[in-house]
């Protein structure tokens, strides 16, 4: 049934837009910034969106077809948003491709860096990577954020494609994993 559904471009586009919206909303949860220390800056919002996208894409790619196709459409949608955001920030047509290349390298580098720690359930390694990438510091201090990420990955692992597309909660409440700053 999903196969036929995704053959119609309009339906497919609406599903991806809705999923992208849910991803964006999850990355803007106030608890990420108040309880887990994600900086409320352009860079912090990029890191939050990237982190949530990585988690969701990771799950979609483990699901049977059309999960990987949905993942590819979603990543395309996320990168189109990055492009539009750069243009809104005043980056000119000449500078956008260079910045997009850097954003792509950052996105996929983070995905690769987080994957091993998530798979191993290695909280200290994940906390160190999150401290460096998301919180912008070299020392520890991202244990609560790492706990949130591991809980999110575990929660996503329990949701099938119908649940993901049907509106199931994709991410836990970040405020449960930290204390207000």
TrEMBL record:
<dbReference type="InterPro" id="IPR014569">
    <property type="entry name" value="Ubq_cyt-c_CBP3-rel"/>
</dbReference>
<feature type="domain" description="Ubiquinol-cytochrome c chaperone">
    <location>
        <begin position="35"/>
        <end position="169"/>
    </location>
</feature>
<dbReference type="InterPro" id="IPR007129">
    <property type="entry name" value="Ubiqinol_cyt_c_chaperone_CPB3"/>
</dbReference>
<comment type="similarity">
    <text>Belongs to the CBP3 family.</text>
</comment>
<dbReference type="Pfam" id="PF03981">
    <property type="entry name" value="Ubiq_cyt_C_chap"/>
</dbReference>
<comment type="similarity">
    <text>Belongs to the UPF0174 family.</text>
</comment>
<protein>
    <recommendedName>
        <fullName>Ubiquinol-cytochrome c chaperone domain-containing protein</fullName>
    </recommendedName>
</protein>
<dbReference type="InterPro" id="IPR021150">
    <property type="entry name" value="Ubiq_cyt_c_chap"/>
</dbReference>
